[in-house]
Design a protein that fits this description.
By secondary structure, the protein is an alpha+beta fold. The chain is built from ten helices and 14 strands. The radius of gyration is 22 Å and the shape is globular.
Length: about 375
């Protein structure tokens, strides 16, 4: 099966069909997240008026990568620090890994090119709902592991949430979810350590197709993460990657192969109420609102460490902390520069900074907004 990047180089008419269908499905995605009526069990009917629930589950593993820290006392100190972190540290890290499923789940209709010839098999978005209704449960204690040549401190977790929608939408975007009891697995290759993705893998996993050159920066990689990207594909208008995303993950971050499992369950008004996000101001038509929490990217940052003992040479490092913890002795790394980066061990107090992504038609600098309606991001401006 051809990838959507190979298909994008085909006939312009086919591209127009895909773009038009994608626009319709992005609208459907908003309905899946936000729209639902109250009522009883749908009884397996694809046309029940009460609504529908689609449960999302994923089992995965998230880690702190130790490879870049020199073997010896520094690496052992880093491993000990990671092993000592609390549940909140690991669930936050798991959230950042889960967020890397965003791009494919929004644009998933373009990953099934053979389906366009048969309307009964058309796929559309099954987007992540807002993080406020995510549930992440750690399933074991953190442990130091060696996996495929990588030295990691890792923990397993289970992700679960629900999509709340009308009765017809699940079947419209995934035929296997047309009735209660139907299920679907969406495959993913995710970075074992979701931090410093751009620094470690470059643009290998960044899909900038139809986005302005230079849209990617360190804190918004989840907007563009696409594990199907290959060298010299349409993913890479800014920098041509030398490795596929999968190759880059295998070499530089560790890789987790998993699935997001979707199951259509019987509609329950109490569950729907618990997972419904936002107030519906217009129940009979389009309902637009700005979801401000999806417009802010945050990072924990340490100041420059003057006089810190660094390897491979003594130098000052502008660093990004691997957590939001304060005043801790931990290994840190420069956010910009080559992969052969100075690692320092010093005591410093982290500070949190944030950047707001403005999706304005008049804003051209570092804006992750699409030039066409078919690729408009739903994270910052959401149709309800």
């Amino acid at each position: 099966m051809k990838t959507r990047h190979e298909l994008s180089q085909g006939a312009s008419f086919s591209h127009l069909r895909i773009a038009t269908a994608s626009t319709l499905f992005i609208l459907a995605a908003a309905i899946v997240v936000f729209a639902a009526g109250e009522g009883g069990d749908e009884g397996g009917s694809p046309t029940a008026a009460d609504g529908a629930l689609v449960r999302m589950d994923m089992d995965s593993q998230v880690a702190v990568l130790l490879d870049e820290i020199p073997v010896g006392s520094q690496r052992e100190a880093a491993a000990g620090w990671a092993l000592a972190q609390n549940t909140s540290f690991w669930t936050d890290r798991a959230q950042r890994q889960t967020r890397d499923t965003y791009y494919r789940l929004v644009f998933r209709g373009l990953y099934f090119p053979s389906a366009w010839a048969n309307a009964s098999k058309v796929r559309g978005p099954l987007p992540l709902p807002p993080q406020s209704v995510w549930h992440i449960q750690l399933t074991n204690a953190p442990a130091r592991v060696a996996q495929n040549g990588h030295d990691l401190v890792a923990v397993n977790y289970h992700f679960q949430t629900y999509l709340v929608t009308d009765a017809a939408s699940p079947g419209a975007v995934e035929p296997n979810l047309a009735k209660t009891g139907g299920s679907w697995d969406e495959p993913f290759n995710l970075p074992s350590d979701p931090e410093l993705l751009l620094e470690r893998t470059g643009y290998a996993c960044m899909d900038e197709f139809e986005y302005p050159v230079g849209s990617v920066f360190e804190e918004n990689t989840w907007y563009f993460y696409d594990d199907t990207c290959r060298p010299h594909s349409s993913c890479h208008p800014t920098v041509v990657a030398k490795e596929s995303c999968v190759e880059a993950l295998q070499k530089h971050t560790g890789i987790v192969k998993t699935n997001v499992h979707f199951t259509r369950v019987a509609y329950d008004p109490n569950t729907a109420s618990a997972f419904r996000v936002g107030a519906i101001a217009n129940p009979t038509g389009a309902d637009l609102s700005v979801v401000t929490e999806d417009m802010v990217e945050q990072r924990a940052q340490l100041p420059s460490l003057a006089g810190a003992a660094c390897l491979p040479s003594r130098q000052r490092c502008a660093t990004t902390a691997p957590s939001r913890s304060t005043s801790a002795t931990l290994p840190t790394r420069r956010t910009r520069g080559s992969r052969a980066t100075c690692w320092c061990s010093a005591r410093a107090t982290s500070t949190t900074t944030s950047r707001t992504t403005v999706t304005s038609a008049t804003t051209a600098h570092r804006v992750a907004s699409a030039p066409s309606a078919s690729r408009t991001r739903t994270a910052s401006t959401t149709t309800r």
